[in-house]
Every structure is written in C-alpha cells, then in structure tokens.
Amino acid sequence: MSESTTFTLHTDDHIGIITMDVPGERMNTLRASFADELRTLLADIRAQDDIKGLVFCSGKPDAFIAGADVHMLDDCASAEAAEALSRAGQALFNELEALDLPLIAAIHGPCLGGGLELALACHGRVCSDDDLTRLGLPEVQLGLIPGSGGTQRLPRRVGLVKALDMMLTGKQLRPKQALKAGLVDDMVPRSILLETAIALAKRGKPARPGTRDLKSLMLEGNPLGRKVVFDKALSTLRRKARGNYPAPERLLEVVRTGYERGMAEGLKAEAEAFGFLVMTPESASLRRLFFATTDMKKETSYQGAEPGPVARVGVLGGGLMGGGIAYVTATRAGLPVRIKDIDDRGINQAMAMAHRLLNDKVKKKHLRRPEMNRQLARLTGTLDYSGFNRADVVVEAVFEDLKIKRRMVREVQKHGPAHGVFASNTSSLPIHRIAEGAERPERVVGLHYFSPVDKMPLAEIIPHAGTSAGTVATALKLARAQGKTPIVVKDSAGFYVNRILAPYINEAIRLLLEGEPVEAIDRALVDYGFPVGPLTLLDEVGIDVAANIAPVLEEELGSRFRAPAAFGKLLEDKRLGKKNGRGFYAFDKKGKPADPGLYHLLELTPQARLPARDMAERCVLLMLNEAALALSEGVVASPRDGDIGAVFGIGFPPFTGGPFHYLHQQGIDTMVARMEEYVRKYGERFTPCAPLRQMAEQGESYY
Ligand SMILES: CCCCCCCCCCCCCC(=O)CC(=O)SCCNC(=O)CCNC(=O)[C@H](O)C(C)(C)COP(=O)(O)OP(=O)(O)OC[C@H]1O[C@@H](n2cnc3c(N)ncnc32)[C@H](O)[C@@H]1OP(=O)(O)O
Ligand SMILES: NC(=O)C1=CN([C@@H]2O[C@H](COP(=O)(O)OP(=O)(O)OC[C@H]3O[C@@H](n4cnc5c(N)ncnc54)[C@H](O)[C@@H]3O)[C@@H](O)[C@H]2O)C=CC1
Fold it and tell me: What spacing in Å lies between the alpha carbon of 591 and ligand 2's midpoint?
C-alpha cells in the first residue's frame, strides 16, 4: 500500500486504484506540490508487476477535482512563475498519458479546469450520471485559459468546434452531454462507477476517438476548414469581449498553434499564454470575485444569530416577480411554495411561468420530465390564507403600494406562525414604513430580487432598525437556498443597487437630450463592459418602474437624483419600454431599432458627437461616486459586498472586480482627479464625494 497525504493506492483484482483526497478540504484542487507525490506513487506502481491497469478517482463524497488551486495562482509573483506551474502540470499529465498501463478516470461531481485536464490525459473516462457531475474548462471565467494541456487535448477529444465552444464560454457539460460529445467513454449510476472503471481498465487502453461525423471532418479535418472555424470564433469573441478580456483571443491563438505546429508547440504556447494571463488585472479581478462569492456562502449566521426554519414558503402575488420567486424556491431550493393572489389569473400566471421555464429545460435535455413534474408539484395556489399557518417565510410581491403591503404584513402575521418571517420584495418603499403597525415588526425584512428572478443572481436583504438578526439570517438562508448571492443593505432610499444605478441612468438620459443617438449611448456602455446599455436596461425594467423610484430617491437623498424633465414626456407618451413595446426602442418584429418617434417627442435631431469613452465615463463616474458615498453611509457593509452587488445586480464589468475594486486598481487619487476633470468639462455633478476626496488626500484605498 503506497500512501501520501493526498494520494492513496489500493489494488482490486490487479487494478491499481489511485484515490485523490486533499486533506481538510471540501474540494480536491491541484497544487504543484502534488506532482512529486504522484510521481512517487507511479514509481511504486511500476515496481509492482502484478498491477495490470489503473483507475484514478476522488475520495471526496461529491467532487472529482475543481481545477488548479486558485490561491496558488494568486501567489504567483511573475508570469514566469505561473508559466512554470503550467509546465509542471503539462509534464505530469504527459507522463500519465505515456503510461504503459491503461489509466481510467472515474468521475463523480465537478471535474473542472485542471481536473478535466488530468482526466483528458487518462486513456479513458467514466462518469456518474449524477446531477452533481459536471465536466468543463471554465478557466476563461477567471480570465485564464486551461494551462495543463486542455487546449490541446480537448479539441482532439471532442472536435475543434465543440472544444472552442466549451473553452470560450467555460460551459460545463452534464453527464449525458459529455457522453454524447465523446468526452467520456461511459456514463453509469454512481453505485457502479468504480467497478465500471475497473472493468474498462481491464480491457486495456480504449481506442482513440473514431472519425468525427462528416461535417466536422469537412470543417476541421483540413486547414481551410479550420480557418473558417477560427475566423468565425474570433469575430464572435471580439463582438462579445469588446477588447475587455484578453483570455479568449489568447486561447484561440494557442489552439491554432497546436493544430498548425503540433502538440509540443501548442503546449509551449499554452504555458506562455497561461503565465501571461495569470498576471493580468482582469484575471486578478475575476479570481477575487470568485473567492468573494465563495466566502459569502459560508456566512450562514448573521450578527451571531442562527437562521430559523425554512421548510415551507408562501408567496404573495403571482405576478412577474412573485412567479419568479416561487419558481426559484420550488426548483432551486426544492421547497413547497404556496402562492396567494387576489384572482386566479395571478396564480395561473405564476404556474405558467414555472411550467415554461421547466419545459425549456426538458426540451434542452437538462431535466427529465418526471423531475419537472416533481418540481411543479411543489407549487400550489390559493385565493385565501389556507396553508399560510405553516409558512416559515412569506415573500410579498404584490403591487408597489404601501397600504397594501402594510395590510399584507398584518394579514400574514395574523394567519402565520409566530416565528414566521415576512419578506417584502418592494423595489423602493422603506421597510420600516412597511413594518409600521405590525404585530411582530422584528420579523419583517426586505428581500429585494432582480428581474428576471430565474436569471439574476443578486438579492438585497434589507433589515429595518427593528428587524431581528435571526430574521436576517433566515432571509439569507432562503436566498442562498434559491441560488442567490445575497448582500445585506441598509433600509435607505433605493437600497444599494437602485441607488447607484439612478445617477448612471440619469446621465444616459442627459446624453440623449444632448442629441446623442440612443444606440450610440448604449453601445458606449456595452463597449465599456456592461451586458446591456442603460437605455436598453430601462426598456427592460420598465420606464414606469424607474419613474416610481426616482422621486423616492430625490426626496430622501437630494436633487442629484432628480430625473431630467424630459423623462415625464416619455410617460405622457405612454412609453413604458418592453412591457408595452414602446420605449427608447421600437420593439417591432424586424428587430429593435431606436424609435424615431422618440426624437420627435423630445424635439431632438440625433447626432453622434461625443467620444464613446467620454459618454461611458460620464455614466460610470457618477455610479462610482454614488457607490463610494453609499459605502461611507453604511448602505453596504463592505467594499466586497458593494462589488458583488454591482457586478451581480447590474452587470458592472466583471473584469474590473466591481466598483470598489476598480477604484482601488485605478487609484483613488487618479479617479478623484478624473472626476474633477469631468467637473470642468460637464458640470458640478461630477464633484468627487467627500469620502473619496479624503481617501485620496490620506493615500487610503478600499483593498
Ligand atoms: C494531480 C497532481 C497535479 C499537479 C499539477 C501541478 C500544478 C498544476 C498547475 C495547473 C495549472 C493550470 C491548470 C488550469 O487549467 C487552471 C485551472 O484549473 S483554474 C481553476 C479552474 N476551476 C474553476 O474555475 C472551478 C472553480 N470552482 C467552482 O466553480 C466551484 O467551487 C465548484 C463548482 C467546483 C463547487 O461549487 P460549490 O459546491 O458551490 O462549492 P464552493 O464554490 O463553495 O467551493 C467549496 C470550497 O472549494 C473551494 N474551491 C473550489 N474551487 C477552487 C479552486 N479552483 N481553487 C481553490 N479553491 C477552490 C472554494 O473556495 C470553497 O472553499 P471553502 O474554504 O470551503 O470556502
Ligand atoms: N418588476 C420588477 O422588475 C421588480 C419589481 N419589484 C417589486 O415587486 C413587487 C411586484 O412587482 P411585479 O411582480 O412586477 O408586479 P405585478 O403587477 O407583475 O404582480 C403583482 C401581483 O400581485 C397581485 N396582488 C395584488 N394585490 C394582492 C394582494 N392583496 N394579495 C395577493 N396578491 C396581490 C396581483 O394580482 C399581481 O398578480 C412590487 O413591489 C415591485 O416594486 C422588485 C424588483 C423588481
């Protein structure tokens, strides 16, 4: 029996089973120090001539290998050091691939990044059919590329087109998809995974992948076809990345090198590119965001208080938000949900939304129909409060009307258990006002989701002054169970996300009123790194919703939040945005051109004058300034929460790490100076807030 701290070997009928189990860690990750341990084990194996094959598996209950240890990458002081790490991984995996004995990877749970690269170096792969099992090379989401042979082995395993799609998006394949793509040789129930891998090892090294289908042969089997693939991939990634992310383009270069100059040159190019990318600010920002979100998941209590039970949930209002909240509760949290509305239409609307979303998953073969039906069965509807006597949490998503919401609190606390939490999804009303007159105000909290609820990862949890810590902990528990990344924010106007969004949106409207075309304004912010432009966002959320929030912000926070007067003209002209097909854009069948009627309404002649960078910076600087002010007022608890809120709530460019990380990276003094430059060019509203000026004077920063 050969042992190390990470790898153990035992044999079963002449098959050596290598088990990787990093001590004290929930996940297996790859570290440079493991290379020698594994080599020692391999030497022991070579000395045992009764071993006829090998299986590599994980000792973790629900995880194979999650990739390279990202902390190890953070510790790299130079591109050369990171390149050396990559070469170490490449060398070791080449040795695995060159083994005389057949080596089979038995995969259950996440098999990602370097973990999949290790599996690709094995001679065969078997995975469990479990929903936890995912196979992918998500390095691009960390601003990296695979660094241990993945850029060379994956295309040769699943074909160039499929491999590029996986590596450029970071998508993770489910077991069935992996089997269909040829990434694994077999998919079996977890209970027989090891025995299947052993049997495969006994059969010797599986044959190399058969010839691809005719289409991939035609496309990938020759330089001309591959040029078509690479050129298309390059134009697509340039359209998406807009020059903000260096990793995807480097990935293409590395894969192409491997095809044109052979695997050895491809590996050399891979290591060089990996080393360079580890040291880029974009990757540092994305890696920091990754750890920020994993750290948040561990914070299960709040101010020392543990959460209460969250076994049964009620939702008030089956509309756009209530339907989404019910859906994520039933499907992601796996909890029974009781939807109450004032008429059947609301209930049916919520049920139909859940059915549509789940049916889409079934059509994409991401979900089996029996499982869909099982999840739908968790949803029930009612026009009265039957069943609410057992609801541990009730999430309210009725009309944005203070009187109605207050009545909801009273009724729910009358029908519900004493420990029950009332969580309002209000987008603008002060929580302390909603809690006024409640029998148990300490059980009232804000739980602000973002639309569409099934896609937007952020939730704001808003305690009022009388909310108990246990209530906040319970709301955090529910939000996390729903797959959300929640942040706790102060009960002040606009909470956090809407507060920092408002000045950004207002500046976009000012640009429009200065005559800049709608598409030019949106394109400037998308080029800057936002997922959509500010005017597209307004159309999506609803111009009326924004109009409801603006006066609440202005009343509590001051005139800087006053929407430009022209905003009223849009509403008078019944321009609500996507919801009624008329907004900044015309939502007609042919596409989504800017609505020419808009310029007539606002008496404008659109003329692109300002540089895109100026337009983007005008909007972003005001958002940064407001975020700094909000943090100084305790609206968010930390720069980390402020970064998570902005990136996950409004898509603040992830490659910056979020507003506070961006201010830190650029330098507070530099950003203050830039704001002062914009004061001179565009007006007093760009005056840097006192906290930023003070930090600049004292040489302080956020990280
Ligand atoms: C066999 C010997 C080999 C020796 C090789 C020599 C050196 C190797 C050099 C390799 C160089 C190139 C390799 C490469 O291609 C680059 C990479 O692999 S980069 C990493 C790519 N992987 C990922 O991006 C996956 C990141 N993780 C996740 O997406 C999720 O964690 C996951 C889906 C795996 C699980 O999600 P969940 O269940 O929600 O758990 P958490 O997210 O909360 O994580 C639990 C726990 O694990 C920690 N963790 C997860 N992944 C990593 C990681 N890659 N590095 C470090 N730590 C990781 C996470 O932080 C949590 O830690 P706690 O302390 O428990 O909070
Ligand atoms: N639409 C959005 O993007 C977001 C909205 N919000 C907030 O969520 C809440 C709901 O918004 P939407 O879902 O967009 O509205 P909606 O109009 O789509 O749905 C509201 C639902 O509440 C029901 N309802 C009204 N009074 C009720 C009562 N007394 N009891 C039970 N049900 C009742 C209505 O029948 C309707 O089905 C509002 O407070 C809104 O500000 C929060 C975040 C984003």
Answer: 29
| Token pair belonging to 247 | 């990793």
Nearest to 700 by CA among 632, 633, 654, 652: 632
265 is catalytic: no
Instruction: Specify the 3-state DSSP secondary structure of 675.
Output: helix
Tokens 């970071």 label which residue?
170
Whether residue 6 contacts residue 46, with contact meaning beta carbons closer than 8 Å, is answered with no
Radius of gyration of the chain (CA): 28
Least confident stretch, 484-493, 543-552, 600-609: 543-552
Closest CA to 483 of 337, 356, 355, 328: 328
**Residue that the structure tokens 């992601």 belong to:** 332
Contact (CB, 8 A) for 144 and 283: yes
Question: 410 in ligand 2 pocket by Cβ < 6 Å?
Answer: no
Continuous segment of H or E residues that includes residue 338: strand 337-340
Query: Which among 83, 139, 272, 460 is annotated as catalytic?
Result: 460
Decide: helix, strand or coil at residue 247: helix
User: Any idea what DSSP says for residue 437?
Assistant: T
Which residues does residue 250 pair with via DSSP β-bridges, in sequence order?
Answer: none
What CATH number matches the domain at 7-279, 3.30.1300.10, 3.20.20.100, 3.40.50.720, 3.90.226.10? 3.90.226.10
Mean pLDDT of the chain: 94
Q: How far is the CA of 598 from the centre of ligand 2 (A)?
A: 28
CA angle 22, 24, 27 (to 5 degrees): 55
Give the closest ligand to the alpha carbon of residue 319. 2
Question: What ligand 1 atom has the least distance to the C-alpha of 69?
Answer: 55
pLDDT at position 590: 61
Q: Which ligand is nearest to the CA of 56?
A: 1
Q: Closest ligand to 87 CA?
A: 1
**From atom 56 of ligand 1, which residue's Cα is the shortest distance away?**
69
Helix (H) or strand (E) holding 199: helix 193-202
**Nearest partner of 495 among 458, 468, 530, judged by Cα:** 458
Instruction: Specify the CATH number for 313-488; select among 3.40.50.720, 3.30.1360.40, 3.90.550.10, 3.30.70.1350.
Output: 3.40.50.720
What six digits make up the tokens of 196?
């299947």
**Token reading at 599:** 């310029």
**pTM, rounded to two decimals:** 0.91
CA 28 / ligand 1 centre spacing (Å): 7
> Does the pLDDT of residue 1 top 60, yes or no?
no
CA of 543 to the centre of ligand 2 (A): 16
pLDDT of residue 214: 73
Pocket of ligand 1 (CB under 6 A): 26-27, 29-30, 32, 34-35, 38, 66-71, 85-86, 88-89, 92, 110, 112-114, 117-118, 138-139, 142, 144, 146-148, 150, 294, 297-298
